[in-house]
């Protein structure tokens, strides 16, 4: 499908973009069960980044499914395509110099690995929002677990669709043991110390 397509070199280099922005680009890839706190913590992290004058953008699950990926459902094939497209968009935003935060369940290890390769390992930060299923189900902020348990929703991650937890996440956050503010602070500290943001 994509023969005869040539990648154009750009006149503005990565280094120039980084100098203009005042920081390097990163993709903070949040992964975890529904209700684990990806969206909440990513928002809290983005708030802190804004206060540090970091140029960022948050791509959130539901918002992307309303637009870019509104033609996709929740079958395995569609979930893979969902993540692939988000990976491509994140990569373009990182190319533009932003710190991109993404908040998608992204349940399959192979998909997250694909995005890591696409974005480049040096720019990709996998953030595991590690919350036990029982806690997510208790929180049930959107009432989805209830629907999954009664069978109203099929292929729900953690219930009747697999979640493959990261084996070596770049940042590991256990939300059952720390409040939202503390989780966000730990992530920003790790970005400064380990990723030289
Ligand atoms: P996800 O994006 O992973 O589906 P959400 O961020 O939408 O999850 O929902 C997580 C819910 O859990 C929110 O209602 C949030 O207020 C609540 N919550 C309670 N404690 C925490 C915590 N320590 N970290 C993150 N969220 C928490």
UniProtKB/TrEMBL annotation:
Record: residues binding ATP: 32-39
Active site: 106
Enzyme nomenclature, EC number: 2.7.1.25
GO molecular function: kinase activity
Claim: Lipoprotein is one of the keywords in the record: no
Top enzyme class: transferase
Record field: catalytic activity: adenosine 5'-phosphosulfate + ATP = 3'-phosphoadenylyl sulfate + ADP + H(+)
Ranges of residues in domain APS kinase: 25-174
SUPFAM superfamilies: P-loop containing nucleoside triphosphate hydrolases
Transmembrane segments: none
Residues annotated as signal peptide: none
Entry-linked Pfam families: APS_kinase
Source domain of life: Bacteria
Keyword terms of this UniProt record: ATP-binding, Kinase, Nucleotide-binding, Phosphoprotein, Transferase
Family label: Belongs to the APS kinase family.
NCBIfam families: apsK, PRK03846.1
Alphabetical list of HAMAP family matching this protein: Adenylyl_sulf_kinase
Role this protein plays: Catalyzes the synthesis of activated sulfate.
UniProt-recorded name of the protein: Adenylyl-sulfate kinase
Source species taxonomy: Bacteria, Pseudomonadati, Pseudomonadota, Gammaproteobacteria, Alteromonadales
